[in-house]
Amino acid sequence: MAFYIKSEREIAGIRQAGRVVAATLKLVAEAVRPGISLKELEAVCVANIQAQGGKPTFLGYRGFPAAVCISVNEEVVHGIPDSRVLAAGDIVKVDIGVTKDGFIADAARTFEVGTVQPEVHALVSATEQAFWKGVAQARPGNRVSDVSRAIQEFVEAQGYSVVRELHGHGVGLELHEEPAVPNFVMPGKGPKLVKGMVLAIEPMVNMGKLDVRTSANGWTVVAVDGKPSAHYENTVLITDGEPEILT
Questions:
Q1: How far is residue 57's CA from residue 142's CA, in Å, rounded to a whole number?
Q2: For the segment 28-70, what is each residue's pLDDT rounded down to a tens digit?
Q3: Which of 51, 137, 147, 158 has the greatest count of CB atoms below 10 A from its CB?
Q4: Which CATH class is domain 8-245?
Q5: 18-44 burial string, b = 16+ CB within 10 Å, else e?
Q6: Would you say 104 and 57 are in contact if contact means Cβ atoms under 8 Å apart?
Q7: Peptide bond connecting 187 to the previous residue in cis, omega within 30 degrees of 0
Q8: pLDDT of 179-211, one tens digit each?
Q9: Residues with Cβ < 8 Å from 123, sequence gap 6 or more?
Q10: For 101-247, where are the E strands, in sequence order?
């Protein structure tokens, strides 16, 4: 398996793209409320990305028809923003990729709309915690499987399911690069982590069963049992020591 070690110049470029992603997600957090539409949230993202000299990486990627992915409740990922309006009690996942000066960063958050049910809040919290469990293993000398195992063990200990069909990935010069970063342990240990690798680590966690399907639109991945799903992602740089969150 070949993967690309980024140079200092490339890391600096990815870091700049990551700052745009982070700033955009902060604006989304401020905008999420009952009554806002998914298209309005997309517009918030596009305006900020373009104002900072970036462009939405997802728009047109493999034919994707929107600038960002916005997925609600049982939708896991790859939701297409439309005229639907958020209601109190919903959770909404916003996944953003930014290309700036040829470099790419990618991150996602799950936002609570108004007050959600306690069990839904627990799912959202556990998904973020799963990310931090995984990223704690993202050190040189460890393997991708160490990241995967930390995420899977934590998620399943909480009684939730890890989605198998989707995974994290290398990122930076392309949106999806090697290596794959599953959220569960696959056969083999995966490649060793080395300084200069840039990874999108992204637990996708279902409240119920792990089974998913793709909607009729050909993009949106949905939990088959209709129970909520949460997503948390950052672009992460492997360093000599502590990993650096670039988004």
A1: 30
A2: 999 999 999 999 999 999 999 999 999 999 999 999 999 999 9
A3: 147
A4: alpha beta
A5: bbbbbbbbeebeeebeeeeebeebbeb
A6: yes
A7: no
A8: 999 999 987 777 999 999 999 999 999 999 999
A9: 91, 160, 205, 207, 228, 230
A10: 103-112, 161-162, 168-170, 177-181, 198-201, 204-206, 212-214, 221-223, 229-231, 234-237, 244-245
Residue 68: helix, strand or coil by DSSP?
A: coil
Q: Which of 133, 139, 128, 179 lies closest to 154, judged by CA?
A: 133
CA–CA distance, 109 with 2 (Å, rounded to integer)? 29
Instruction: Assign 90 to helix, strand or coil.
Output: coil
- CA dist., res. 92 & res. 131, Å (int): 18
Q: Which amino acid is at 134?
A: G
Q: Answer whether 0.85 is exceeded by the pTM.
A: yes
d(C-alpha 141, C-alpha 143), whole Å: 7
